[in-house]
Recover the amino acids of this structure.
């Protein structure tokens, strides 16, 4: 069986949980200690679904403001991006609004999804309201916004499986 390699960039402002999402996905664990990524950290995970075999190469890109000028170089050649926002920090959404068009300009055939992370810390109604506002602000009719929680694992596997082309996005929160 031949494996298809796909590069997935994990993008977002600092402290939104990018590294925690990768750790939950690749290692199946959560650690609530804050670990700041310096530059980029690359992780791999092989995914098998039916006759499909995909090796995801996940690039966890630093979210520091000083680093943003270099980040586009790391986006080159990516098949997909998971752009994370922190549900408890509405200011982190500004980075999503900046990053999504940049990723799609660099990778016009790329797929992107928004991980609205840390939803376990807010009431469901507040999350739904914020996600609806985010979709309205993005003006992108086919964009997928997933409520996620690296802590509980909510939609983490689903997000990466969808970006790998192996699963549909969830329909309900």
């Amino acid at each position: 069986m031949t494996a298809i390699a796909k590069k997935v960039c994990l993008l977002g402002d600092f402290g939104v949980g990018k590294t925690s999402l990768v750790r939950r996905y690749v290692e199946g664990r959560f650690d609530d200690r804050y670990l700041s990524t310096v530059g980029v950290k690359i992780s791999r995970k092989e995914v098998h679904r039916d006759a499909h075999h995909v090796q995801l190469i996940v690039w966890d890109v630093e979210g520091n403001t000083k680093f943003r000028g270099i980040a586009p170089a790391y986006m080159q050649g990516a098949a997909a991006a998971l752009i994370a926002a922190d549900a408890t920090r509405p200011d982190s959404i500004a980075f999503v609004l900046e990053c999504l068009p940049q990723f799609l300009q660099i990778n016009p055939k790329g797929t992107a999804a928004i991980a609205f992370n840390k939803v376990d810390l807010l009431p469901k109604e507040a999350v739904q309201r914020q996600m609806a506002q985010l979709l309205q602000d993005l003006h992108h009719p086919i964009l997928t916004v997933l409520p996620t929680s690296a802590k509980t694992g909510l939609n983490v596997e689903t997000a990466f499986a969808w970006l790998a082309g192996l699963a549909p996005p969830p329909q309900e929160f």
